[in-house]
Amino acid sequence: xxxxxxxxxxxxxxxxxxxxxxxxxxxLKHSVVGWCFRxxxxxxxxxxxxxxxxxxxxxxxxxxxPEDWPALARHGMSCAIGPSGTAQSxxxxxxxxxxxxxxxxxxxxxxxxxxxxxxxxxxxxVGFQYRDAGNxxxxxxxxxxAARSCVEGWKMLARHAEKVGVTVCIEHLNSRVSDHPMxxxxxxxxDDIDWVASLVRQVDSPRLKILFDVYHVQVMHGDLxxxxxxxxxxxxxxxxxxxxxxxxxxxxxxxxYAAIGRALNRLGYQGWVGHEFIPTRDPAVGLxxxxxxxxx
Length: 296
Hints:
Layout: H1 3-20, E1 29-33, H2 34-39, H3 46-55, E2 60-62, H4 69-74, H5 100-117, E3 121-124, H6 143-164, E4 167-171, H7 193-203, E5 208-213, H8 214-220, H9 224-230, E6 235-240, H10 257-266, E7 272-275, H11 283-295
Parallel strand pairs: 1-2, 1-7, 3-4, 4-5, 5-6, 6-7
């Protein structure tokens, strides 16, 4: 091998190693969302996901179901937030009163499972605006009706959440992006973060919060730091991804994640930051970069 080739290989190795380094001391608690890395990129299995997440500085793999919890325990990983337990969870949700009985039964069952496993949070949603969630021709649920339905349903859910000690975090999603089924959700009625927060505040329970997804909030609203400040009392969980594209938290996207991390620390945020980007290159490097970006 020529000397210059050897030097090139050595430099490349150093760059790769540097790209994967994470700070020795982390100011925030980092987690990785399972679906992104299990269905995209290298499509890691649960054991690989746990190993890669831990190496990147994450102490949790989240939004995985009970079938995966034993694997997390084997690797010494937490589950920062559990699933909702419902079918088509972000489509068929609490804005539709006709679904309340089904949702309450399935959601409370999942809360019980989370409590038994020591998982402190579970995700929840507003739902699609259509009477038949998957059929835009079925009629639109009026916004005031959706609001009443959510508050009524969440009050029932919160009572059980208070009993078992698990916090339900309602996620705001963007309805603008339509070029990929997991980058945006046209038809989602909870696409206004301030409206969702107002409904959560009406429930007035310590066990009902919002999931502040930085990517979705940026797509719909922007003004991220001021929104974190305004909603700090109801934020129970945070998600990240780059915008546009829901990719890595790198220089190809527009969100200043260092400012997001500093804001969370300044506000005394004690929850988890879950990295939920769709990898477009080496996922392990991208995950370590995400942790570094928020900790910068």
